[in-house]
């Protein structure tokens, strides 16, 4: 039923008039066909994904083991299997695993959100925080923490709510989601600065306790994230990731000018609005859970693009790369210093040099910086 | 590429079309019927509304009133994607994705027919191969588009539009950036495309080229159609004067009698 055919071996001439018919199948893909259905499997992206998965597994294992107190491999395994002493089992199963799981989800969400915004704006430096996601989510969390008597920072769902509200303000000010990408981004810089200032204002009137809690959240930390956070996050991703994959296919067309893309059947307003909404929802959820962790949304898609090649919109690769970055940064933060470093601090420290590398390394495909 | 149903289907019908921008009507009461398999050239001075007309027919600009039917269907009743099965547009200076190859570009022409579950059908494969063959770009398939000459590039863009398999093809000044040789090459190609039963509408600046390669010439001024018909019947001194404000001699080409416009130089008599 399904016929598998490696690209590069099609030789049936399509038109009799011309000899030496060209092979027109994408040279970097393998065609899978069954009945009226057909898929293109991009080999390079698939290989990259296949390599990223074991990397993720190893990083996750390291992250479970990593701690400032030190835990051996056998101890970790016994904790995982539940055969170790109750203390170890509790640390591994109730503290580390859910935290790492939440971190992987946060990384995947940030990676995809970054990939969507970078493609929308046609700029490798465009991240969801430019449309107010981070500041909106932070303001929502700060406002609720300040209003509560317990001064507890929590409730991951405040993140997406604040992010969506901020992004909605940005989009309205920019004149609609169908507007050109740069216009939305420029408006976003102004609006998010303002929202950030409101958040700072609220925080400056709070006592040290609340301010301390909010501060830890606002640099981006996975400390204390449990299954109660990880499970809803996973459900949100289960809905949004397939949508992002569907949108990613169309986003390729944004590489043409608007008239050409529209003439090829793309409803640009809907596509832009949909992709932006997805990016904001994904990034907002991630920020709600892990705080505004810096640089993952910027770095993951850039790395994924290098792995997948210049002609792709690397949604899957960005998700895997983002997850790997968070897992690595979180593990590093727990072993690098005597006191645990929040994951956001680690990504910021590593992200600065990375940003410079992105800015100054010429793009091999185009020769442009 | 040719099939019987397409040959008999009406190509393009534009009825009582009004289009423009708030407070600025650009296209006024334009009607146009083109049978399948014919080439129409729209001519007129800059700003006469011919580009807006083309954009409206391409479903890029919503008209205030009037209808555009392509292959028998009102394109404004169709979704963006379905409309792309009916009408293909080649804008005047399109921007290609970075580092795209010729085959890669032409494959994008199949986008309207593709989806998540139908990413690369045999039909797509044949359409791309035929489009490359028809435009003589098969040998260039693996080359990068940005490394080709202007004439080669324009043939590749045409291949992409052909691969879209639409009954109506719109070309916005397809030869404006080309030298004479490459311009003729592209116009010959346009004739071959029409011969397969498709309707081609092109905006043309060069009146002589328009007259020679079009079955039907439509002259526009200030948003209205001021003349239409066979080129040799329509093009005369009065029309050239009306459109461009230029005194010109109209000659018949020795080969086929198609009109050739030669502007009169105002100071010519002084020298003699």
UniProtKB/TrEMBL annotation, chain A:
InterPro entries: ABC_BtuC-like, ABC_transptr_permease_BtuC. Keywords: Cell membrane, Membrane, Transmembrane, Transmembrane helix, Transport. This is FecCD family ABC transporter permease. Belongs to the binding-protein-dependent transport system permease family. FecCD subfamily. It is a multi-pass membrane protein. Residues 7-22 have a biased composition (Low complexity). It comes from Streptomyces mutomycini. Gene3D superfamilies: ABC transporter involved in vitamin B12 uptake, BtuC. The keyword Hydrolase does not apply. The chain crosses the membrane at residues 46-66, 100-121, 156-177, 227-247, 276-304, 341-360. Its main location: membrane. Residues 1-27 are annotated as: Disordered. The keyword Nucleus does not apply. It is found in: Cell membrane.
Automatic annotation (TrEMBL), chain B:
The keyword Cell membrane applies. It is found in: Cell membrane. SUPFAM superfamilies: P-loop containing nucleoside triphosphate hydrolases (SSF52540). Gene3D superfamilies: P-loop containing nucleotide triphosphate hydrolases (3.40.50.300). Its main location: membrane. GO terms for molecular function: ATP binding. InterPro entries: AAA+_ATPase, ABC_transporter-like_ATP-bd, P-loop_NTPase, Siderophore_ABC-ATPase. It comes from the Bacteria. It is a peripheral membrane protein. Residues 12-247 form the ABC transporter domain. Keywords: ATP-binding, Cell membrane, Ion transport, Iron, Iron transport, Membrane, Nucleotide-binding, Transport. The keyword Mitochondrion does not apply. This is ABC transporter ATP-binding protein. It comes from Streptomyces mutomycini. The lineage of its organism: Bacteria, Bacillati, Actinomycetota, Actinomycetes, Kitasatosporales.
């Amino acid at each position: 039923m399904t016929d598998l055919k490696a690209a590069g071996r099609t030789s049936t001439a399509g038109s009799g008039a011309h000899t030496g018919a060209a092979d027109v199948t994408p040279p970097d893909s393998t065609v899978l066909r069954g009945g009226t259905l057909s898929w293109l499997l991009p080999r390079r992206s698939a290989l990259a994904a296949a390599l990223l998965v074991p990397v993720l597994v190893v990083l996750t294992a390291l992250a479970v083991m990593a701690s400032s107190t030190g835990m051996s491999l056998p101890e970790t395994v016994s904790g995982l299997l539940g055969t170790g002493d109750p203390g170890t089992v509790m640390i591994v199963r109730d503290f580390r695993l859910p935290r790492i799981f939440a971190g992987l989800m946060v990384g995947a969400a940030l990676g995809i959100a970054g990939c969507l915004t970078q493609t929308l704006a046609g700029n490798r430096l465009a991240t969801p925080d430019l449309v107010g996601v981070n500041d909106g989510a932070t303001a929502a969390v700060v406002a609720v923490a300040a209003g509560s008597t317990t001064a507890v920072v929590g409730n991951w769902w405040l993140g997406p709510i604040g992010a969506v509200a901020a992004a909605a303000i940005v989009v309205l000010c920019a004149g609609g989601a169908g507007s050109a990408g740069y216009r939305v981004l420029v408006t976003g810089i102004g609006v998010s600065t303002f929202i950030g200032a409101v958040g700072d204002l609220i925080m400056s009137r709070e006592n040290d306790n609340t301010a301390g809690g909010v501060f830890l959240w606002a640099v981006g930390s996975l400390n204390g994230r449990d299954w109660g956070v990880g499970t809803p996050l996973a459900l949100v991703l289960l809905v949004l990731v397939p949508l992002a994959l569907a949108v990613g296919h169309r986003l390729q067309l944004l590489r043409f000018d608007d008239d050409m893309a529209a003439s090829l059947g793309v409803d640009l307003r809907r596509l832009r609005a949909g992709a932006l909404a997805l990016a904001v929802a994904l990034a907002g959820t991630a920020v709600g859970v892990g705080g505004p962790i810096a640089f993952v949304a910027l770095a993951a898609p850039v790395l994924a693009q290098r792995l997948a090649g210049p002609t792709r919109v690397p949604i899957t690769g960005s998700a895997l790369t983002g997850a790997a970055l968070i897992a690595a940064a979180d593990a590093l933060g727990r072993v690098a210093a005597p006191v645990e470093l929040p994951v956001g601090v680690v990504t910021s420290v590593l992200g600065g040099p990375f940003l410079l590398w992105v800015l100054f390394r010429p793009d091999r495909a185009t020769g442009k910086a | 590429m040719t099939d019987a149903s397409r040959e008999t289907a009406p190509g393009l019908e534009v009825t009582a079309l009004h289009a423009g921008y708030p407070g600025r009507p650009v296209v006024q009461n334009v009607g146009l019927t083109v049978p399948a398999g014919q080439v129409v050239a729209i001519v007129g001075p800059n700003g006469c509304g011919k580009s807006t007309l083309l954009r409206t027919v391409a479903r890029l600009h919503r008209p205030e009133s009037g209808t555009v039917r392509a292959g028998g269907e009102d394109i404004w009743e169709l979704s963006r994607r379905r409309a792309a099965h009916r009408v293909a547009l080649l804008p005047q200076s399109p921007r290609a994705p970075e580092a795209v190859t010729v085959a890669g570009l032409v494959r994008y022409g199949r986008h309207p027919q593709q989806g998540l579950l139908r990413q690369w059908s045999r039909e797509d494969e044949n359409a791309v191969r035929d489009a490359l063959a028809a435009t003589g770009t098969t040998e260039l398939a693996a080359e990068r588009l940005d490394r080709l000459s202007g004439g080669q590039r324009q043939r590749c863009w045409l291949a992409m539009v052909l691969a879209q398999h639409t009954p109506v093809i719109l070309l916005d000044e397809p030869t404006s950036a080309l030298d004479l040789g490459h311009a003729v090459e592209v116009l010959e190609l346009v004739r071959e495309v029409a011969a397969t039963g498709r309707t081609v509408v092109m905006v043309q600046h060069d009146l002589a080229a328009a007259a020679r390669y079009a079955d039907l010439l439509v002259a526009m001024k200030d948003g209205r159609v001021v003349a239409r018909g066979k080129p040799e019947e329509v093009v005369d001194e009065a029309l050239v004067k009306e459109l461009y404000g230029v005194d010109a001699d109209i000659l018949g080409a020795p080969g086929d009698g198609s009109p050739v416009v030669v502007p009169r130089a105002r100071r010519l008599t002084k020298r003699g």
